[in-house]
Description:
Layout: H1 28-31, H2 35-38, E1 43-48, E2 52-59, E3 68-70, E4 73-77, E5 81-87, E6 92-97, E7 102-105, E8 108-114, E9 120-127
Antiparallel strand pairs: 1-2, 2-9, 3-8, 4-7, 4-9, 5-6, 5-8
Amino acid sequence: MKVLPFLLLTSVATPLPAAACLPPWEEPERDGLDLVEVAGGRAKVVFENARVRVLEVNVAPGERTGVHRHGEHLVVFLAPVEGQNIGVDGRPVPVRFESGAVHWGDPITHDTVNTGAAATRNLIIELK
Length: 128
């Protein structure tokens, strides 16, 4: 029996579902709801390429980010968070995460208020 010294892998292209062919969401920088712009010094871009944008967000107790929006995104909590997300309907939704937690977020427009006793620190990874 002959043994091949390597294995060649190939893939077959499959059509994408219709939802995957939709145009990309409008960049927040173009609609005035970019977190970096509305949050002042509380948010900064720490990495960006054609696929993702990574923001570092620090919010002191009692402060808020300002109304902003995200497309699909991940949040990595670098410090415990106790706060509220306030949607465009004005309804507050309590949020609480421990340091080290990772949270998936669907597209959203909201304001975030730190209702805890300590500053929050997190990374937001926005998919493009």
